[in-house]
Fold this protein.
Amino acid sequence: MTVTETRVKSVYFFGGNQTEGKANMRNTIGGKGANLAEMSLLEIPVPPGFTIETKECARFYENNKSISEETRHQIDLNIQKVEEMQGKKFGDNDNPLLMSVRSGARVSMPGMMDTILNLGLNDDAVEGLSKQSNSPRFAWDSYRRFIQMFCNVVLGVSHSGFEDILENKKQEKGYTLDTDLTVEDLKDIVNQYKSFVSSKGKSFPQDPKEQLLMSIGAVFQSWEADRAKVYRRINGIPHHWGTAVNVQAMVFGNLGEDSGTGVAFTRNPSTGENVFYGEYLVNAQGEDVVAGIRTPEPIKKLDQQMPAIYSELVDIYKKLENHFKDMQDLEFTIENKKLYILQTRVGKRTAASAIKIAVDMVDENLIDKREAVLRVKPDQINQLLHPTIDKSFKPNVLAKGLPASPGAAVGKIVLTADKAEEMKAKNEQVILVRQETSPEDIGGMHAAEGILTAKGGMTSHAAVVARGMGKCCIAGCSDINILKGKVEINGEEFNEGDFITLNGTSGEVIKGQAPLSKPELTGDYQKIMQWSDEFRKINVRTNAETIQEVKTALEFGAEGIGLCRTEHMFFDETRIKLVRQMILSESTQDRESVLDKLFTPQKNDFKEIFQAMDGLPITIRLLDPPLHEFLPHDNESISDIAQTQGISVEKVNKTIENLKELNPMLGHRGCRLGITYPEIYKMQVKAIIESAVEVQKEGKTVLPEIMVPLISGDKEFKNIKKLIQETAQNILTKHQIKLEYQIGTMIEIPRAALLADKIAEEAEFFSFGTNDLTQMVYGLSRDDSGAFLPEYVEKEVFPEDPFQVLDQDGVGELMKIAFNKGKQTNPNLKVGICGEHGGEPSSVEFCVKIGFDYVSCSPFRVPIARLAAAHQAIKG
């Protein structure tokens, strides 16, 4: 049966004019196979071989981890083609054709799956290779490498055992380098290797065909290796894709001083500079470059050692970059002064490099602005906005939690907010370590360089506040145990004042002081963001309630405020006491008396924000959290408030006890407070409207949007809307002034989403509060679920943590229903999102597709949202 007669084609040849694949077939033959085929078509010197398609990976698992008979047949036919091109025979003892077996997923997963080199050697073929190459040492060294690699990757024999044998032989002979070993030494090592494998109950196969099929199977199985799974999870690569397998004729860089191997990038992957960048080793195989046993030479030096080869390599890299129109990562081998390219792929790069390369390639007319924007991943922008740990530093990782807010921070451990503020006043850098944070900790959080909590999730108080401040935060780190004056981290004890480092991007807690790199925003960054704004079709607002957050967000390009949380304004030392007095008041009259004292500072807060946001919309959420969150829980603070109020400690404790709720997130909060204590919302509305009037009189444009939180239906909304309108109208009548303002609501309860058509008859805008909506749809506590959600993701119960990445199937479907129902009864309804999902790229793209008017996120996520929105607009 010929290849063309087969029922299902699963193997594709590459090499010269017989090449069957091409660059656009990466879904079928993986990225590596597609690029090998494309290079062959470009007449670049590529050793011939064949690629087993990605679908065979799934069939392999369905077939009890066995390669199908049809694919085996196609493998045999393609081996014959390689033999004809190379003039050697696979399995022949006199003139053996050796193969490499490598993985090749649709997207590059460097180092995550397995590779086998020098395949086809056995006790007889090694002698044939020795004569063929006229180098017995090369032949036996290749055999030694093959046994070690094959038995480790395919048979699962520990790598360290082989290394021990090798090191013992070198010590016995007084050698320093592997290259000092003689032919006899290598023969002895090979025998010791085989004995070692036998002692583990394994058998090294002598049949090259058996070696090949076992190696192909091992590469398929490496798709399910733990490291590959983790890499896919981190990088959002679907688990069902599978990997292709590339089988390629071996070429050897370890044949002598006119041979070598190396890795090169067509541009500097760290800086983006347009210079040829890389390194190489003479008389070596590719694994030697990676292993670090010998120090590679910079690629430029190859021009001195082998000028003709270097010149050819430069021509090839320019040809490849011009063809693929992106920075390439090349692997090459030189065999007896002949250059071969073993691989090309789009090179991994830093955020700064990605931006520079994209902008430079537009200037060089290689790509257009649309493509340049797509070249920069939204998540990469995080690297540019926050400090990061120096890449050369090797951290001592103590524990790992949830990466709640990106960046890095170094400081001394403090265990209370007061201590953080005290040490900050002395110019000390601190890390605030807490069981979990509460609104009372806001001063200490502001003083700290970073925040570490034992409990809580990605949308916990600590996480949300830290992101708003641009602070590094790790939440839900269950390996920390807070004691009196000290903390245990994974069993190791640290005192207050000891240094730790937080990597908020990875969630790692690191011992000691790690060196940090400061972010730099270049003109190229501004260009990419400017181009992004030209393409995106949705506005990007920010979640902010302090003037500093507002200024930061405006610098990052925010086009309004989508969520101003008024409760955050109550937590400074003076105001919290007034709030507590209000809560402890027994009559409406007493509460109103205290609220009158809160009115002026609340009005001044709004006034400052309105002035800064001249002409931009500001959505202000009325008080949302339950009242018990404002009350103290420690004896000292309870005594203080009792003394201030002139009441007994027992009475304070009784009030605290009465306000306790079994499930406060579903309790007396949001609009329910406004209905039962309307005087609270009246004061807030009065502060909003009065400040807006004052700023408008200054000649500025004020666009207030008053948002009612946590409604479950239209009647609650109507009740609060009436209160807002009456309060506002009284003020406007008094000032004899007209002020444009809107009244809308958060959609964060499933019932509200289902009744959106009725609510939209009254509301002028919807803003989806996806933090609460997610927890209510899933029945998950966003603060407590951090303890087990990582395991859910690891076991593929959930594809992602739904508090980090919007669940488009469940929560997203409910949002679509609400959006469509709302628009049916109110076509002019303005719709946005203000949960933390508003800054997550795939969630932003989802909002663009539905047709939202805006997304809103923390200040440091604004550029990410701008870029993500542009990506969706370009991709359509």
Remarks:
- The radius of gyration is 33 Å.
- The mean pLDDT is 92.
- The longest strand covers residues 338-346.
- The chain is about 45% helix and 15% strand.
